[in-house]
Design brief:
Elements (H helix, E strand, L loop, with lengths): L5 H21 L5 H23 L5 E2 L2 E2 H23 L1 H4 L11 H29 L10 H28 L3 H14 L12 H7 L3 H13 L11 H26 L3
Antiparallel strand pairs: 1-2
Helix pairs in contact: 1-5, 2-5, 3-5, 3-6, 3-7, 3-9, 5-6, 6-9, 6-10, 9-10
């Protein structure tokens, strides 16, 4: 029998962990498949309806209608945020599996990121179909390859952040509360549902240091080239921040991986 390579074993482990994560989510409640899709879909619909129909927000952000502005910003941000939160707790949730030497902490974090990405991609596709087919919004993407590239960079950035936070939480478990609280202001300052283009230029300079703001602006710029340009925001900065954080995350993981697998 031919011996499998390390890469083949890791791919098989991640695939098995993805199936395990999917089964866990589907079996958490009755009609698990329905709630897995409907819950984030309903959340977005409620958020958009509350801002548009209840508060009466009908502004244009560049050439983008406000409902499209919200969906194209909130959905990617929720994906990035959930990858961080789920990856941060992936080791604790799968600690019993580390009795098998093939299963590594990094595999658990990657598996959760894959499942979350697939789930959010399905919800995003359904939202875009509904907004284009029933409400007549322009859901086309001007530069789809750029959009996909920025989205993948965002996933990689969030995955790197999840690895760092996972190691941090392993050393200081109570820090999870502060990380969750820190994401509350980040949500408002990441150009999700409050247009930061309305803020003074002096504030925008400091906000440009927020990687999630950089990602959201780049995603919307790929959707419509008429999206307002923000000072300090550029594609090179997103790439540099992602690669730098990934190197830091892998270095920390290499140094602390034995601590993570302790049962």
């Amino acid at each position: 029998m031919q011996k499998r390579s390390s890469l083949a074993i890791q791919k098989a482990v991640i695939f098995a962990l993805v199936l395990r994560e999917l089964r866990t989510r589907l079996s958490m409640r009755r009609m698990g498949a329905f709630w897995m899709v409907f819950e984030p879909l309903a959340y977005m619909l409620v958020m958009v309806s509350e801002r548009v129909f209840v508060r009466g927000v009908h502004i244009q952000v560049g050439a983008m209608d406000y409902p499209m502005y919200m969906v194209t910003g909130m959905m990617p941000f929720l994906l990035f945020r959930n990858i961080v939160f789920l990856g941060m707790t992936a080791v604790d949730a799968n600690r019993s599996l580390f009795a098998y030497r093939q299963v590594k902490p990094l595999d658990c974090i990657v598996a959760r990121a894959i499942v979350e990405t697939l789930q959010r991609a399905l919800v995003y596709a359904m939202l875009m179909f509904a907004m284009g087919f029933w409400f007549g919004y322009d859901v086309s993407i001007a530069r789809p390859l750029d959009w996909l590239g920025v989205l993948l960079l965002g996933v990689l950035f969030s995955l790197s952040l999840a690895i760092i936070f996972c190691i941090w939480v392993e050393a200081m478990p109570n820090i999870k509360v502060f990380i969750s609280l820190a994401f509350m202001p980040i949500t408002f300052l990441s150009d999700t549902f409050i247009p930061v283009t309305k803020l003074p230029a002096q504030i925008l300079y400091w906000l440009a240091w927020n990687p999630f703001l950089q990602l959201n602006v780049q995603l919307r710029t790929a959707i419509t080239p008429d999206y307002p340009v923000l000072p300090g925001v550029g594609f090179k900065l997103v790439i540099f921040a992602t690669l730098a954080l990934l190197l830091i995350a892998l270095a920390l993981y290499h140094a602390r991986r034995d601590n993570l697998v302790s049962i």
